[in-house]
Amino acid sequence: MSVVTVQLGQCGNQIGYEVFDTMCRDLHNTQGFCSKRENEIYQASCKEHFFNEDKSEVPVARALLIDMEPKVISQTLLKAAHSGRWKYGQHSHFCQRQGSGNNWAYGYSVHGPKHEESIMNLIQREVEEYDSLSGFSIIMSMAGGTGSGLGAFLTQNLRDAYPNSFIMNQVIWPYGTGEVIVQNYNSVLTLSHLYRSSDALLVHENDVVHKICAKLMNIKQISFRDVNQVIAHQLGSVFQPTYSSEDSFQYRRNPLGDLMTALVPHPEFKMLGLRNIPQMPENSLAYTTFAWAGLLKHLRQMLISNAKMEEGIDWQVRPPLSGLPALEKVSPNKELRFNTSIANLLILRGKDVHSADTGGFKDPALYTSWLQPSDAFCEWRTHRAFNKYEKSAALVSNSQFLLKPLDTIVGKAWNMFASKAYVHQYTKFGIEEEDFLDSFTVLEQIVASYCNL
Amino acid sequence: MAQSVVVQVGQCGNQIGCCFWDLALREHASVNKKGIYDDALKNFFRNVDTRGTGISKGRICSLKARAVLIDMEEGVVNEILQGPLKDVFDSKQLITNVSGSGNNWAVGYKVFGSHYRDQIVEKLRQTAEHCDCLQCFFLIHSMGGGTGSGLGTFILNVLEDEFPEVYRFVTSVFPSGEDDVITSPYNSVLAMKELNEHADCVLPIENESLFDIVSKINQMINSGKPGTTVKQQSLVTLNEGGIKKKLDEKPFDKMNNIVANLLLNLTSSSRFEGSLNMDLNEISMNLVPFPQLHYLVSSLTPLYTLADVNIPPRRLDQMFSDAFSKDYQLIQADPKHSLYLACALLVRGNVQISDIRRNIERLKSSLHFVSWNQEGWKTSLCSVPPVGHSHSLLALANNTCVKPTFMELKNRFLRLYKKKACVFDITSFMERNLSVRSLLKFLSFLVCQAALWESLTP
């Protein structure tokens, strides 16, 4: 079943390119640690979800590039064409002349309705090519104007037009300081709107990825390209083909759908986070050996202590003793000690994957009381290795991990809103103060729900 | 890609404009080696063939600036049209007169304004029609005289009426204390009222600051210290490599080139590619928290690059520190000791996001931000550096340090007005006392606002 990737705005397009590039590189990787035949089936499965074949035999990404100004899209199309390994479709992009000016209201209320028909037609044409559509993966940032505003509008439209398809938004969480001054407003408006129409929001935090680049990848002068490549690696480790169950050797037909089923049992809880281990510079890979026990132990502790990478983990944090009520009500202000999960999906790839012991993740103490671990925990094991990592583990989780960042953004946005700063820029395009207040209410509700797990 | 039109009014406006076009051509020439009329060029230039019809792609035939040149006396504009840049403009883009405005805002605004309104609208429409997506008007003028100040602000009104959706960025040169034009305080304050109501964003510039920067550079060059030869192309005050030759250099050119470089850096991210683009509409979105507080203090670094390759380039971090030092600001102000409402860093060249983040972290503690915008930074990364540099930084700040500049203006105004000096010259063209009172009110408003924000800092 096909997954259509919609790349929105500068961020969405830059990351989308890296995702397809990473997947393609992985497909042509000879270090899959599996047989040639196995590799061929892997490649075919990936292509079934993410690529079309055309006459020239160069795979064409199943993606739509949308931006309100032309510079980034033309760069992206060129880079893909030059790679020689894959490319974008000739008519799969839509752009205008003038951007959204970092204004959510402009993206949502002006660009959205104005280009609704053209964009939906473009999507329709793309979708018609496929026998079966699994759903949409929309890559967008929260901080800007196009990705955020137009993204929220488009997600709503897609939900109305394709009620039976899954919609997953890859949301890029901006740096705490120094990207866009009105980023907190844009983020609040985006999240509150997406929550209504999207099935799941997979969040990628720039600050976290930046630390990964600095501490784990040892990059001295980190560029956006480096950050985007790490995000692409993480996404690739989730979306590349996986076996559908332990015994059968068939690759999963509907990764997007299966992911949703595993992770989003309740519509109130849609925020997903992604952790991937190990992460290291490519030239160190040859000199390092991994053991599943070590990797999984670290990953489990990363989950429960809310660590975002494998360095600096707080080993003091332990799950509460099962059967006893939590000692204190968790509040976002206090340092979150133990991270309660609703659901976890563990994706293991590489050598000896069947020997990995994942018992640690089945502990009921990790989860809320209203789900059994058998329902809350899911694992996908594939022995074809990913992106040259002999063994790699990715954990997609629906947990309290985003509580603090979310609360921080809402706090800053509220602080700014209280003084009415910049509000005139939004009311100019039809987003009134009541809309802001509604958005704050929705987010407060989400924060409260996650808090009370 | 969207296009911008430059409207240069008065002597000062046209001289700065002339420097701007020269430097713009130089910049595009250094980037565009193949001579193709690309999207970046399209922003400020049209491509026309020998008959004057526009060509939208392909090889460059003849470039025409998207500009309208207006002056109420002919000298400056004629010189431009006879000078080395004559092919960049055509006669359809000008409006001139012979008599001049006599350093009187009211003559520029009321007399010439009403007389030339239709012609102005027509020229603007023609220029706008050549654009498939007009995003922004750049108005360049001085505040102290008559044409730039009076007619310039009248045109601002026209731009708002006729093209309400197009951004209006105004570069205003404020008079210095020792200005020889007696009526400059009146002209400036009257013009400021218009700027306050009709501009989206104003970049105030003071001649004193430009002069200080020029002196600093001269001192550096003439110091005779070893290793202090600079790459001529990199001097922010010169147009080495441009069309105008050294012989044609005018007395104010060094200072005007600084302003021209400011405008080029401001638009670089919307013309050239980069990993974090910033369009012009993002400037007012991020830096103007309240409609009337739209005065941005600017600073440009580095001012030059050393020619001696054996000397290691000034550390990147030094560039960021300099941008916040009062010696680099283009008005007489010290943003470090005032309150920031918002700050934007437009970086060009070989700089990555980690460099910017490191420097923001480093500088944050020494700067005061208003309580509701503690992390109010906007950044942009453009991959193409300016000519002669490997990287550069333009910092735009919405900071309460503009207050002293405006207060000084108000004081000079009041000194004159108390004696009723020259008032008749101005009010004879306008309803008596009407606008003088309202602008006194406006000045007080600005003072109050600034005080309010200052009171919010802990």
Automatic annotation (TrEMBL), chain A:
Keyword check for Nucleotide-binding, yes or no. Answer: yes
Briefly, what is this protein's role? Answer: Acts as a positive regulator of hedgehog signaling and regulates ciliary function.
Q: Which domain of life is it from?
A: Eukaryota
Q: What is this protein called?
A: Tubulin delta chain
SMART domains in UniProt: Tubulin (SM00864)
According to the record, the segments passing through the membrane are none
- List each copy of the Tubulin/FtsZ GTPase domain by range: 47-246
Show the GO cellular component annotation of the record: centriole; cilium; cytoplasm; cytosol; microtubule; nucleoplasm
* Subcellular location, record wording: Cell projection, Cilium; Cytoplasm, Cytoskeleton, Microtubule organizing center, Centrosome, Centriole; Nucleus
**Its family?**
Belongs to the tubulin family.
TrEMBL record, chain B:
List the Pfam families.
Tubulin, Tubulin_C
Q: Which CDD domains match?
A: epsilon_tubulin
Localization? Cytoplasm, Cytoskeleton
* Protein keywords: Cytoplasm, Cytoskeleton, GTP-binding, Microtubule, Nucleotide-binding
Q: List GO molecular-function terms, semicolon-separated.
A: GTP binding
Q: Which residues form the Tubulin/FtsZ 2-layer sandwich domain?
A: 276-411
Origin superkingdom: Eukaryota
Matching SUPFAM superfamilies, A to Z? Answer: Tubulin C-terminal domain-like, Tubulin nucleotide-binding domain-like
Where does it primarily localize?
Answer: cytoplasm
Q: Which GO terms describe its biological process?
A: microtubule-based process
Q: What is any one of the record's Gene Ontology cellular component terms?
A: microtubule
Q: Where is the Tubulin/FtsZ GTPase domain?
A: 51-274
Keyword Phosphoprotein listed: no
- Can the keyword Cytoplasm be found in this entry's annotation? yes
Q: Which PANTHER family is this protein grouped with? A: TUBULIN
Which family is it part of?
Belongs to the tubulin family.
Record protein name field: Tubulin epsilon 1
Organism encoding this protein = Monodelphis domestica
Which gene is the coding source of this polypeptide chain? TUBE1
